[in-house]
Specification:
The chain is an alpha+beta fold. The chain has one domain. It has a two-stranded antiparallel sheet with strand order 1-2. The model has no long low-confidence stretch (mean pLDDT 81). This is Chemotaxis protein CheA. One of its GO terms (biological process) is signal transduction. It comes from Aquicoccus porphyridii.
């Protein structure tokens, strides 16, 4: 990945689709952890 996206949690990589567009590949192992963190942040506000 480009340097800007290397440390974005929840993104594992990227691929070029058949039509030339770029699609991000999600890190499915990180999604529950990120969702739990969002729930905790919502409770504090």
């Amino acid at each position: 990945l480009e340097q800007n996206f290397r440390r974005v949690e929840g993104i594992a990589g990227a691929t070029i689709m058949g039509d030339g567009s770029v699609a991000l590949i999600l890190d499915v192992d990180a999604l529950p952890r990120l969702a739990a963190r969002e729930d905790t942040a919502d409770e504090r506000h």
